[in-house]
């Protein structure tokens, strides 16, 4: 936990200056968005982020949240992948590049790491001459718990 905290601080340390350099004002709302993101474990969608920020400051606007997300992604502080419905889900960096297995029954999500994806990537490289982006690899299916429940 301590290690994770200090890592977050290092990652987020220069964001304020970077935003200023891009002509974005350092407002309390923006600071709060960054705090909520830095405390996020795993994935968060724009609307979830907006909801969390609004609990803390009801005046938070969607445009502030989405504009901040855009800039943070440009800066490389966050990255996005896509859920089954195509929604963008944001990951706070640093995080190893990964894909996702998503259960279409319960929504549970598991990560696919680079080693696990390597055989798939090689196969499509060979058959389609196509490079897969691991962070955009989202596979739908059914998790073990849902299969067991169905089997009954
Ligand atoms: Zn995308
Ligand atoms: Zn499931
Ligand atoms: Zn992920």
Describe the structure.
With 152 residues, the protein is α+β, with helices and mostly antiparallel strands. The protein has two domains: 2-92, Winged helix-like DNA-binding domain superfamily/Winged helix DNA-binding domain (Arc Repressor Mutant, subunit A, Orthogonal Bundle), CATH 1.10.10; 99-151, 2-Layer Sandwich (Dna Ligase, domain 1). Helices cover 51% and strands 17% of the residues. The strands form two sheets. The chain has a three-stranded antiparallel sheet. Strands 5-4-6 form a three-stranded mixed sheet. It is globular, with a radius of gyration of 18 Å. The chain starts with a helix and ends with a helix. Residues 1-10 have low confidence and may be disordered. Bound molecules: zinc ion (ZN) (3 copies). The site of one zinc ion has 3 residues, from β2.
Structural descriptors:
152 residues, alpha+beta, Arc Repressor Mutant, subunit A, Dna Ligase, domain 1, 2 domains, 3-stranded antiparallel β-sheet, 3-stranded mixed β-sheet, 51% helix, disordered N terminus, binds zinc ion
């Amino acid at each position: 936990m301590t290690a994770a905290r200090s890592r977050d601080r290092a990652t987020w340390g220069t964001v304020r200056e970077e935003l200023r350099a891009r002509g974005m004002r350092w407002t309390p709302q923006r600071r709060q968005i960054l705090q909520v993101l830095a405390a996020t474990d795993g994935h968060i969608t724009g609307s979830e982020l907006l909801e969390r920020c609004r609990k803390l400051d009801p005046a938070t606007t969607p445009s502030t949240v989405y504009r901040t997300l855009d800039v943070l992604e440009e800066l490389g502080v966050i990255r996005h992948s896509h859920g089954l419905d195509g929604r963008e889900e944001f990951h706070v960096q640093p995080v190893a590049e990964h894909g996702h297995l998503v259960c279409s029954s319960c929504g549970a999500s598991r990560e696919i790491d680079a080693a696990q994806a390597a055989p798939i990537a090689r196969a499509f490289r060979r058959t389609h001459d196509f490079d897969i982006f691991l962070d955009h690899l989202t596979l739908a299916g059914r998790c073990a718990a849902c299969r067991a429940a169905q089997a009954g």
